[in-house]
Amino acid sequence: MSTAVVLAAGLGTRMRSPLAKVLHPLLGRPMVGWIVAALREAGVDDIVVVVHHQEEAVMSALRDGGVRFVRQESPKGTGDALRCALAQLPARGPVLVTAGDTPLLQASDIRRLLDAHAASPGRLATVASFHAQDPAGYGRIDRGAGIVEHAECSPAQLAIQEVNSGLYAFEAEYLHAEVRNLAAHPPKGEYYVTDLAGRLDGGITGVASGFPASAFAGVNDKAQLADARAVLRRRVNRAWAEIGVDFADLDYASVDAAAVLLPGASVGFGAVIEGRCTIAGTVGPHCVVRNSSVGPGAVIHAGSVCDGANVASGALVGPMARLRPGAVLEEDTHVGNYVEIKNAVIRRGAKANHLSYIGDADIGEGVNVGAGTITCNYDGVHKHKTHIAKGAFIGSNTALVAPVSIGEGAIVGAGSTITQDVPADAIAIARGMQKNHEGRASQLRARQTR
Ligand code: UD1
Ligand code: CA
C-alpha cells in the first residue's frame, strides 16, 4: 500500500490558454492522466490529486482512474497544495509527491525513487534530482543551502546544473508535523514543498541523483508541450513496434494512448490514430483514423479519413476516402477514391470504387455501385434510407432518391434518377432517351461560322 499526491491545481499562465495546464492533451490523454497512469503502473494504489483550476474538468478527465481529489481553495504554491492533501494522507509510511506537469515520468522512475528512499531508513524525505543541460526555471540542488528556486538563485547558484525534478518521497509523519510550519516566500507569498524536501544538511532529507532528465521535462508552455508530445509519440509507437506493429517512421505517426494495435498492423508515414481504435490492418500514409476499427488484412490507403467506422478484414479503403460515423464495411469490400460513407453498411464483397456519397444505406453483398452514384438521403427535413439488395448493379452517376429500394440482382442504367423502387432482376433506366440526328453536326457548325 503506498500513497501518492499529484499537485495539479495550478492554472499554468505560461501556457497562455484558457484550459488548465494539466488538462492539455498529449495523444488524447490529459497531461495529468499520464502521471496517474505511471503511478498505477509503479504499483501506487492510492492516488490523491490536488485540484483547483477547472477542477470539475480535471476530475472528469480522471474519473476512470480510481483516484481521490482534494481542493486547494486558493493556490498558494506547491507547499500549500500539499497542506490541502494532508487530511487524506496515512499517518505513517512513504508518501510520494509529484507535480502534475511532468507527463514523461515513468513507472521505473517512481519505483527507483521509492527504492532509494527505502534504502535510507531514518531519512524523512528524498528528492529525485537530474542533471539539466539548461537548468533555467528549475529549483537548483545546492547541497549547502537546499533547493533554491530559479528566481531566488545567486549568480553562483544559477550555474548549478543539478536540479529538482519535482518528484519526492516523504515520510507521512514528517509531512503531518511540518507542512503547516512552512514559511511564505515573497513576493507572491507562496509556500514551497521544496522547503521540506531541501533540508539537505544533517540527513533529514536526501537527494537521489542521476535520474534521466527526459523523465522530468516540465511542461510550462506550449513549446514544452509539443516537445513532450514528441517524446510520448515515439515512446508509444516504439512499444507497439516491439510487439510487432510495422511503423514507416516512429516519429512521424501519432497513436493515441487509448488505441490498441495488433501484431501485423502497419502504420504509414504521417498517419494519425485517434481515440479508441483497434487496428489490425494497414493504415496508410497521412490517414486519420478516429474511434474506428480496422480488421486484419484491411488497407486504408493514403489520405483517407475514418471516423467511427468499422472496417472488416480484407476491405480496401481509399486513397482519399471518407468514412463517417456508422460506416460499416464488411469483409472484402472496396471503397475507393473520393467516396464518402455515412451510417451505412456495405455488405461482403460490395464495391463503390469512385466518387460517391452513400449515406443512410444498406448495400447488399456483391453490389457494384458505379462512379458518381449518390444516395439522396436528405429531403431538407428528414433523412431517408436506401436499400440495395444483393448482387444489384448501379450504373455510374445514378441518383438514388431515398427512401428507395433496389431489388436483388437488378440493374440500374447509368445516369438514372431513381425515385421509385426497382424490383428484383429488373432493369431500370430513368433518364432522357438519346436521339441521334445524323449528319447534322457539320450543318450546325457551318451555321455557327457563317
Ligand atoms: C517546481 C519546483 C522546482 C522544480 C520544478 C520541477 C517548487 C517551489 N518548485 O517548480 O523546484 O524544479 O517544479 O518541474 O515546488 N501546483 C499546485 N498548487 C499550487 C502551485 C502549483 O497544485 O498552488 C502544482 C502545479 O499545478 C504543477 C506543480 O504543482 O503541476 C508544480 O508547480 P509549478 O508552478 O509548475 O512549479 P515550477 O515552477 O515548475
Ligand atoms: Ca512546472
Please provide a brief summary of the model.
With 450 residues, this protein is an alpha/beta fold. It is 19% helix and 30% strand.
What would the keywords be for this entry?
single chain, 450 residues, alpha/beta, Spore Coat Polysaccharide Biosynthesis Protein SpsA, Chain A, UDP N-Acetylglucosamine Acyltransferase, domain 1, 14-stranded parallel beta sheet, 11-stranded parallel beta sheet, 9 helices, binds uridine-diphosphate-N-acetylglucosamine
Report what the structure shows.
The chain has 450 residues and is an alpha/beta fold. The chain has two domains: 214 residues, Spore Coat Polysaccharide Biosynthesis Protein SpsA, Chain A (Alpha-Beta Complex), CATH 3.90.550; 183 residues, UDP N-Acetylglucosamine Acyltransferase, domain 1 (3 Solenoid). Helix content is 19%, strand content 30%. It contains nine helices and 39 strands. Strands 13, 14, 16, 17, 19, 20, 22, 23, 25, 26, 28, 30, 33 and 36 form a 14-stranded parallel sheet that branches. An eleven-stranded parallel sheet has the order 12-15-18-21-24-27-29-31-34-37-39, covered by helices on one side. A hairpin with a 3-residue loop joins strand 8 and strand 9. The chain is elongated and about 110 Å long. The chain starts with a strand and ends with a helix. The mean pLDDT is 96. The protein binds uridine-diphosphate-N-acetylglucosamine and calcium ion (CA).
